[in-house]
Amino acid sequence: MTGVVRTSAWDLAVESLEEALADGVVPSLERLGRLGQLGTLPSFVASLDGDEDPGELAEDHARERESLGLAPAEVAAELLVLGRILDRHGESEARHALDRCVVAYVERVTGELAERARRDPLTGVLNHRAFHARLLAEAARARRYRSRIALLLFDLDRFKETNDREGHQEGDRLLRAFASALAGTARETDSVGRLGGDEFAAILPRTTPVQARMVAQRMHTALATPIVVADHTFRVQASVGISAAGRPGMSTATLLHEADTAMYRAKKSRADTAVAIRDWPQAHHPHRDDLARRRA
Q: What is the pTM for the complete model shown?
C-alpha cells in the first residue's frame, strides 16, 4: 500500500504537537516526555493514506489521546492544528483523509453526548424527558397502525425507609440494581425509564392487556429476587400499575393517569403480586387471548 503522506509522518506529528502546545489547545503532559506527548500521532499521520476506514482510524486515535487525558474538545483542536500543518506542506490527499476522520470523530462525540442527554445519570435508563418523548412516539405509532401499547409504572415499596436507614449512597446502589434488573427483564422492543425518585416505567409497544399482565408478572417475579447492597440483603418490592391504550382518542396523559391510579391502588391493596390493571371492558376472545399469551 502506497501512502499519500510525502513528508515524514514523524516530522509532521512533531510540528503539529509543537504548534498545538504553543497555541495552548492541548495540555502539556510534560511528565510523559516528548515520546509520551506524541503517543500514536506519528502512526496516525502515516495512516492517512485514504485506504483506512475514517471511522475506525479516528476512533483508535481519539481513544489513545483521550487515555492521555485530552478532552474531546482538545482532541478535535489537535486534529484541526494537524490540518493546518498538512496544508502548509501541501499534503492535500492526507488533508482530505483527515477531514473524513474529523467528521467521523465529531459524529461519534455528538452521538455520545446526545445519548448521554437521554439517559438518567444514576441508573442509565431513559430519563424523564426522553421517556415521555418515547411514549409520545410509541403512542402516535400505535394510533397510526391501530395497534396496542401498554404502560407499566413501578414504585418501590418502603424505599424511603431503606434510604434513610442505610444512607443515600446505598439507596443509589439499590436504585441502580433495580433499574438494571428491570431493564434486563424487559423485552427488546420495550423501553425502560426513570421518572424520578424511586419511580420507574416501561413502555410495551404492540402489547395487549393480556400480554401486559404476563410481562408485568414476569418483571415483578424477577425483581423479587433479593438484592445485596452494602452487605445487606434486601427483598425489593415494587407496586406496579398497568394501563393499556388501544381505544380511539386515548391520550398519553390518560394512559399515564390510569397507570398511576392503578399503581397506587396496588400499593394500597398490598397484593402479593402488587400488579393492578386499569383497562376498559373488552369482549372475551379465548383464541385471541391464548395467542397473546404465547407471544408475551
A: 0.65
